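Hi R.,

As promised on Friday, here is the backbone we talked about, encoded as structure tokens. Could you run it through your design pipeline when you get a chance and send me back a sequence?
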């Protein structure tokens, strides 16, 4: 009796043709349809990437202009019991790194002030909002190693108060409160040595820059 080549021990042997038929695509699904689905998938992925990129650019712009704030661990300036003693010589503006914080409800205030400081050649760091309340129009904050840099910054804000915190570098923070009106005009900024002005201290004396 001749053996059936498609059966082995009573079981059906799957042929090559049957395997190809089982794993092949839909016979009615031509190449154009597959290419369309591929292009559609790529289009969706590209669209999502473009949306993410647009969101990142928008967030960066909002942070730069002070419209958006990022919660961060920050030291709170404490009123100094005694102002730093002696006089300090203001540093060259390009040697001072200053961050600007908006503690008011005026949108874009930090970004506007930061732009003015940048135009005067200060190195601008963070520009954002900050939830804080102090009885001063402007707080200028630094550590003990930033007194000269803080004086350079304080001279840009008439009526500002100096506060010292525990930072160990020479950076300076400017915090704008509701009483802030405007940055001191360049022609009225004193470049002479002098003391830092702490809360309720008398106004600085000095020769305005020419």
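Update: got your reply. Pasting your designed sequence below so it's all in one thread:
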């Amino acid at each position: 009796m001749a053996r059936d080549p498609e059966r082995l021990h009573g079981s059906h042997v799957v042929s090559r043709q049957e395997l190809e038929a089982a794993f092949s695509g839909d016979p009615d699904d031509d190449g154009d349809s597959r290419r369309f689905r591929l292009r559609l998938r790529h289009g969706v992925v590209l669209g999502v990437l473009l949306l993410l990129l647009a969101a990142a650019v928008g967030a960066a712009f909002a942070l730069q202009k002070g419209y958006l704030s990022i919660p961060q661990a920050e030291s709170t300036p404490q009123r100094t019991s005694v102002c730093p003693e002696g006089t300090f010589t203001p540093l060259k503006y390009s040697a001072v790194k200053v961050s600007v914080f908006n503690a008011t409800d005026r949108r874009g205030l930090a970004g506007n002030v930061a732009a003015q400081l940048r135009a005067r050649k200060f190195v601008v760091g963070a520009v954002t909002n900050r939830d804080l309340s102090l009885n001063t129009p402007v707080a200028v904050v630094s550590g003990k190693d930033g007194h000269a840099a803080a004086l350079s910054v304080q001279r840009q804000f008439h009526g500002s108060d100096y506060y010292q915190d525990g930072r160990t570098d020479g950076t300076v923070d400017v915090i704008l409160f509701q009483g802030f009106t405007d940055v001191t005009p360049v022609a009225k900024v004193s470049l002479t040595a002098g003391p830092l002005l702490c809360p309720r201290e008398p106004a600085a004396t000095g020769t305005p820059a020419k």
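One thing I noticed while checking it: The two ends are 119 Å apart (CA to CA).

Thanks again,
M.
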